[in-house]
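Exam revision sheet. Question 4 asks you to relate a sequence to its structure. Input first:
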Amino acid sequence: MGEVIGNIAYVVFVGSSWLKQELWLRVGLSVASLGFVLFGSPTTVVWNLLFGLITAYRVFRMITADRNIVMTTEEIEIHESVFPTLTRGEFLRLWEVGIEHEFRTAPLVAEGEDVTRLLLVLDGDAIVEREGRRLADLGRGAFAGEMAFATGARASATVRALDAPVRCRVWSTAMLRGLLRANPDLSAKLERMISADLIAKLQPDAVGASAS
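Answer key, structure tokens:
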């Protein structure tokens, strides 16, 4: 029985190294350490018990720290409706590198031009146009400039305010890419969200359309 537990512990230990999210990595290491404690020499037991306690404490701190983060009512609503896969900490790191901006006459995105920002509509309505033809409407929670952000291509459509002003959260592409390079977990989650958003916009019955 002891040998079985030891082998399982090694499998969990090795498998944990493939986990990208730090919280689950630490949970896996804690479980592996428990297995080593149950099966091992006295020296192995002592060191793995110490390692397991430290890792478990870090897991506890990560969970409680995320719960204790204070956000505004709007931030909570946007987090839950647009960024549900992000932890509160990840969401705030992303949110805080953006700025709030109102668009009245200037387009959010201009067809044929380089796109240097990713936008999220917070209030107001915008329309997507290509060669003067109206393609779609964008409302609260919709991205603009996401295809250009994902591909680096120029904007394939214009997005402008329908009923000014349109309030947006705006992220500089350069600053956002810097944040994502430093946070691989956040980068992977945001990429999946943008991909899902683009796929949804390409559906025949989709309300919106890709705005970049």
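Marking note for examiners. The mean pLDDT is 78.
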